[in-house]
Design brief:
25% of the residues lie in helices and 31% in strands. It is an alpha+beta fold. The chain has a single domain, classed as YggU-like (Conserved Hypothetical Protein Mth637, Chain: A), CATH 3.30.1200. Strands 1, 2, 3, 4, 5 and 6 form a six-stranded mixed beta sheet that branches.
């Protein structure tokens, strides 16, 4: 069973070798994943949601005060992508629901991103 799961899951390293744009909400720049996010602060639970237009919906429990929700989102995504918080850079939108993040060398990809790979 583990063999079946391993063949189904694509690693971030395998996906980063294809430089072409994967979707309108995410793209690769070498081994860095560029992610356009629609943030939802004050949610009941932290979660990676569905794609909405050219953004990936991400909900966090933190209230939207002085960038705290974005900081919480970075900590949540660091666990989801199996990277350190220092490997995630908020390019723009720290105090806005519309954000762009750069995630350096993610070791793990959430299913919504992994299934887009060629």
């Amino acid at each position: 069973m583990a063999e079946k799961k391993a063949s189904k899951d694509k690693t971030a390293k395998e996906l980063s070798t294809n430089p072409k744009k994967m979707s309108t909400f995410c793209a690769w720049d070498g081994d860095t994943l560029i992610l356009n996010v629609l943030g939802t602060p004050g949610a009941k639970q932290d979660a990676i949601g569905k794609v909405k237009g050219n953004q990936l919906k991400i909900s966090v429990t933190e209230a939207p005060r002085a960038g705290r929700a974005t900081d919480h989102m970075v900590r949540f995504l660091a666990k989801e992508f199996d990277v350190s918080t220092a490997d995630i850079v908020v390019v723009f939108g720290r105090m806005n629901i519309n954000k762009q993040l750069r995630i350096k060398a993610p070791k793990k990809l959430p299913p919504v991103i992994a299934r887009l790979a060629p």
